[in-house]
Design goal:
alpha+beta, 434 Repressor (Amino-terminal Domain), Endonuclease, Chain A, eight-stranded mixed sheet, 10 strands
Length: about 325
């Protein structure tokens, strides 16, 4: 079976482009270009196709994949190399390649020039420009912004938190201030603590035990040695509209729906691994008892009775 048949059949059976590249010893770009040249519709997350008609897609990654694949398809149909297409469109060959592989978000004007160079049909040109506008908008929306004391941005974050009906918090090193306040009656607070965050403030354990009984609060703790992937930094999610990471340099804010949804899913996975309800309160009781034993156990001397450490030196 030749290379083209192998990758087309392999892809149809569910193999990924990367897996096919590894199996055939060819590059990712070569396999992808072969599939596109053969008219194979590349799979994209969150969208479907019917025949040759392009249906609306919601997923940002799928839009970007569709745009890159359609531009590659158009170039191959025109018979131009990437270098020739770039010269005629007034952009570099490297940029053409990055756009076709989905590694670069193109300007709408660049897509328009490429469409003209490839002499695509009017409806195809319209679709390419429509996709380009959506991909550019997705990229702008997706960009995480570090707010370094910008008052307007801080206000936006504060407003999002105040308006949220559900606040999810993952805390890894210390207790979040929201957990130490009297719980609101009209807002759901879901907090997952790493064991290290819980142990950082033992003086607040009685309050945590009490607040865990509140009807609008769900408190969970991930004990040490729990087999679950914990991210490097904690975060907060306001409803399903905003994710905020608190860093020393400022707040990193994410509002892209796909990214926010991904963080909600990651949070829910951690929440399912946490001790909640009666199991959490049992865990707190054990910590109380452990701390009491430590506090009442005599501290061993740093030297033997009658021994002068200066003599040892």
């Amino acid at each position: 079976m030749d290379f083209t048949t192998t990758v087309v059949k392999g892809y149809a059976k569910g193999q990924t482009i990367r897996a096919l590249a590894a199996a055939t010893g060819r590059s990712y770009g070569t396999v992808r270009s072969t599939l596109v040249a053969q008219g194979v519709r590349l799979r994209g997350r969150g969208h479907r196709r019917s025949g040759k008609a392009m249906l609306p897609i919601r997923d940002a990654r799928a839009r970007r994949e569709e745009l890159s694949a359609e531009l590659l398809r158009a170039r191959l149909a025109s018979g131009l190399t990437g270098a020739a297409a770039g010269r005629r469109a007034g952009i570099s060959q490297s940029k053409v390649s990055k756009v076709e592989t989905g590694n670069l978000v193109p300007k709408v004007a660049d897509v328009a020039r490429l469409a003209d160079v490839y002499r695509v049909a009017p409806e195809t040109r319209h679709r390419l420009l429509e996709l380009a506008e959506e991909v550019v908008r997705d990229a702008a929306h997706r960009r995480a912004v570090v707010h370094r004391g910008v008052a307007g941005r801080q206000v936006a974050v504060a407003r999002a938190e105040a308006a949220a009906e559900t606040v999810r918090i993952l805390a890894l090193t210390n207790l979040p201030p929201q957990l130490l306040r009297t719980p609101a009656r009209d807002r759901r607070l879901v907090v997952v603590l790493a064991e290290s965050a819980l142990r950082s403030e033992p003086e607040n354990w009685p309050w945590l035990r009490e607040i865990s009984l509140a009807p609008t609060v769900e408190l969970g703790v991930i004990p040490w040695l729990t087999r679950v992937d914990v991210p490097d930094a904690g975060f907060q999610v306001y409803d399903e509209s905003m994710v905020v990471f608190g860093l020393l340099a400022g707040n990193v804010v994410i509002t892209d729906p796909d990214d926010v949804r991904g963080h909600v899913q990651a949070f829910d996975k951690l929440r399912r691994s946490a001790l909640t309800g009666p199991r959490l309160r049992t865990h707190l009781d054990h910590l109380f008892a452990e701390r009491h034993r430590t506090a009442t156990t005599p501290v061993p001397p740093t030297s033997w009775p009658g021994e002068d450490l200066r003599d040892i030196a």
